[in-house]
Amino acid sequence: MGVTKSKSKINQTLFALTTAALSLPGLDAEAAIPVSEAKANFQYGHYQESDDRMKVQIYHADMILPLADRFELTFSIDQDTYSGATPIYSLPEVMKNEPKRKKGTNIFIPTDIVVSASPVAGTFEVTSAMQAYKSFEDAQQKYKDDYIANPPTPRLSRDDRSSAARIAGYTALITKIAPSAGKVFQTMEIHPQETRNMPILGVNYYFDDVTLSMSSGISDEPDFKSTFGNWNVSWELPNKLTTLNIGGNVTGNNISRAVIHSDAEHVHNGDEDYPELDEQSLFYGFNWGISQVLGKNTLLQVSSGYTRQAGYLTNPYKLVYVRGEITAEEYEQLNMEEKIFQDVTDLEVMGVELFREVRPEERNQWTVSSQLRQYIPGADASVHLDYRYYNDDWGIDSHTFEATWYQSLPHGITIAPNIRYYTQSQADFYAPYFLAPRADGNYSSDYRLSGYGALSGGVTFTKEFTKGFSLEAGFEYYTHQGELKLGSGGEGDFADYSSYLAHGALKIDLSNPGRFLGAHNGHHGHHAGPLPAGVMFGHMMENAGDMMIGYNYMYSDRDGDMRYGMDRVGDQAIIDNACDLKKCTFKPDAMVMHMHMFNFMYAPTDWLNLMLMPQIINMEMVMEPLKGAAEDDSHVGGHVSDGLGDTLMVALFKVFKHPNHNLHVGIGFSAPTANINATLDGTGLADSERQSYAMQLGSGTWDFKPSLTYTGNVNNWMWGAQISGTKRMQHRNKEGYVLGDEFQGTAWGGYKFLPWLSGVFRGIYSVQGKVRGETVTPNSQSAPNEFPENYGGQFFDLGTGVSVSSPGGEFVGHSLSVEWVQPILHDYNGYQFEREGSLSVNWGYAF
After folding, report:
1. Euclidean distance between CA atoms 131 and 114, whole angstroms
2. pLDDT at 633 over 60
């Protein structure tokens, strides 16, 4: 039928879109789409909000692997790295410069105006003139008549800070005129860089007319952890035109507050007056739907769903401004007793008229959606029209309208423009600020619960190549505005913002392409058998038009003693000598790195291979205090940095080819695509203290990476050698330093025990130069790893590993190598902590 033709043309695109959509909360489950061949999908996206707000690096990969006629395995993983500014609360603009909360301590109390000899917060200062006021009424009238136009400047002396004066100051603040129709000021807060990881494992089983799907996963970020499971049953009726779907899901969440969340704004250390947050919530839901073929070119889907949320549903970092919850006398009581939690209010006090938001502990959500898929034979195109209605018992109703046109073009190109409109009403307990307490005790000023409209549009391009893979690239622009709300009555323009999302994807059929290898005889382009997993640029493909994709994972650990050269050193030697002319107050205690590198390789001729190798890096370092370290030093605790690393671009040239001997040259360059502004507070701001050189995600310079590789084999024996180097092509990066040059020589030998199993052993000698230059914050350096002379050295390591490859059958074209590299003899420059070893895993697939 015609509709079958339509679906076959767009199945790959629909599958990728569905996979990405199902990773987001709140969307209805789709019926499983059976596959006869293994498929994989790799995606990258960059999301950026306007005005230096949130930015997110998005990484996604998924795979469907058929294991039998009726059974298939699914797997996906998402990693999001986010940072930037986010709204934390809003208040009347006339109050924006008043004291709100105390910073830099483990508790928040409304004493900003009286805590020191220079009691200043924002632009408000309590003056000695207030002490002359004989009553609160005098203070209020004086404030209203004089303060706004002529802010007083003399500061309150320590000896004159009486209780009456403090109460007068509080009274002046909380009685300041705040008109309900006045402008709103939104307070932003810098969010430290954090990472969310979400792996999902699933299975699909196909009966004659019924498909059963189950999946489970974990979403893990620093202060929010979820464990979830989903199930779905899809029943195709005998007429083959109707499919029924029913599914369910359950999610358990643990919500906490980070010890230091952002620039000391959310600092707490377990003090009884400010306990650690440890709350839970439980979500469960059901969905049902029907898919109906209406004609040979038309498909209609209708679905509905219900979700119940219970437990802690409040955002632990959002605040609200509330007038009248606490009187001036009660603020004075809080100040005198130095406590946060009092009988005067059920809210968590964060400052004068400032409290932590509170949301209901239950939420019931209902959705109804429809999707119309229309294939247009004359244009060889299809149009997708979607509508979704949402309602909950918080008072929010929303409508989503979306249209996408999929247009097929010559040369395997598809273009898909898209437009989406979204509108919602506000929650019952939302307001930008509150001029009186609410009876139910629920408050939120989170703009996402306001009434607003959003309009977005974008376009996606897909190019399908031969041999079962395609590339995709797209861009979407989004604008959030109160005035776009359907029927008017939306939030004011203080909450308006825009954003964009740029994304790219690689989609691969992993089943049939490997069968085209033929003459490679199971070596997948390796001249003399599999290589050690840790050797890069070590093989070439032999035939023009061949392609290869690969994934490299490397884990390295530094957890040993501190050394100077080859000798172990104690803490006192580090304190006295490892920080140049300063005294060290910290030393590195442990460092772990995870690197994920993706390898895309193409042979335009039989003597030239081109490689593109982007990478993702995750690092964590723990610092140990030394004598003289301050408890509030920014080095206390662990530090992380993660995100996109530098990108390698390499050309390999065949120099000599013989049945048993091969030689090729590599000319490579590393592009500085990584951020090198990781800071100890996680914000990445220019005035924040930088993390050490080793904790930055890249070099920050263009680097030249030449290599020369020889491989040989006879019977089941194989061997090889490689020399390679890294030459920094710039004198300094944007942070004012440059990493040292590098040289490495390695040689290996191996034996093929079975047609599919080989073992290998190798030695590695490497030299690394010192860092040249200084960081942009030299005055804050207090640990050995922050000084350029404590980098580099000479290193000799031994590696051992195994390789598995398929010479034929279902998995022909695939190879897997694993190698452990053990340090043997190291001569460090300056003061460094020992390397403990590294693990490399390499998967390759040639076609």
Report:
1. 13
2. yes
Asked if residues 446 and 91 have their Cβ atoms less than 8 Å apart, the reply is no
Sheet with 349-351, strands from edge to edge, namely 319-321, 354-356, 349-351
Alpha carbon distances (Å) from 843 to 66, 391, 551, 600, 666 = 19, 46, 5, 12, 21
Residue labelled with tokens 């050394």: 563
Q: Do 2-87+188-509 and 513-846 share a fold?
A: yes
- Between 249 and 539, whose confidence is greater? 249
**CA within 13 Å, CB half, 518:** 5
426, 451 contact by CB (below 8 A): yes
- Angle at which helix 328-337 crosses helix 163-174, to 10 degrees, equals 130
292 near 415, Cβ under 8 Å?
no
* Least confident interval from 91-95, 377-381, 404-408, 686-690: 686-690
The tokens for 142 are: 């004086």
Query: 203 and 214 in contact (C-beta within 8 Å)?
Result: yes
What's the mean per-residue pLDDT of the chain? 80
Distance of CA 607 to the CA centre of its chain: 40
Helix spans in 675-802 (H): none
Tell me the C-alpha to C-alpha distance, in Å, between residue 755 and each of 51, 518, 661: 59, 16, 20
First to last CA, the chain: 33
Quick check: 617 and 595 in contact, CB under 8 A? yes
Task: Report which of 365, 461, 366 is spatially closest to residue 413, judged by C-alpha positions.
Answer: 461
Question: Do 130 and 139 contact (CB within 8 A), yes or no?
Answer: yes
Q: How many helices (H) and strands (E) does the chain have?
A: 5, 40
The conformational region for residue 653 under phi > 0 = left, psi -120 to 50 = alpha, else beta, is beta
Predicted confidence (pLDDT) per residue in 14-65, tens digit: 333 333 333 333 333 344 445 667 788 889 999 999 988 898 989 998 888 8
For residue 555, which of 842, 142, 266, 268 has the smallest C-alpha distance? Answer: 842
757 neighbors 779 (Cβ within 8 angstroms): no
Helix (H) or strand (E) holding 717: strand 717-728
Span 254-298, pLDDT tens digits: 998 754 433 333 333 333 334 578 899 999 999 999 999 998 899
User: What is the DSSP annotation of 597-617?
Assistant: EEEEEEEEETTEEEEEE-EEE
pLDDT (0 to 100) of residue 91: 86
Question: What class has domain 513-846?
Answer: mainly beta
Classify domain 2-87+188-509 by CATH number.
2.40.160.40
Contact predicate 385/369, CB 8 Å: no
Spatial separation of the C-alpha atoms in residues 374 and 370, rounded to whole Å: 13
User: How is the chain split into domains, by residue range?
Assistant: 2-87+188-509, 88-184, 513-846
> Hey, which of 173-177, 342-346, 750-754 has the most confident mean pLDDT?
750-754
| Residues 618 and 664 sit within 8 Å (Cβ to Cβ) | no
What letter represents residue 513's amino acid?
P
d(CA 59, CA 356) in angstroms, rounded, equals 33
Environment class of residue 181 by beta-carbon count within 10 Å: exposed (0-12), middle (13-18) or buried (19+)? exposed
Q: Hey, what are 720's tokens?
A: 């090889």
Is beta strand 757-768 parallel, antiparallel or unpaired with respect to 742-754? antiparallel
DSSP letter (8 states) at residue 503: E
Helix (H, G, I), strand (E, B) or coil at 353: coil
In what helix (H) or strand (E) does residue 140 lie, and over which residues does it extend? helix 136-142
CA distance 19 to 287: 17
Neighbour-count burial of 367, counting CB atoms closer than 10 A to its CB (0-12 exposed, 13-18 middle, 19+ buried)? buried
Other CB atoms closer than 10 Å to residue 291's CB: what's the count?
20
pLDDT tens across 83-126, in order?
888 898 998 887 776 644 444 333 333 333 222 222 222 222 22
Q: Are 91 and 433 in contact (CB under 8 A)?
A: yes
Instruction: Give the H or E element holding residue 166.
Output: helix 163-174
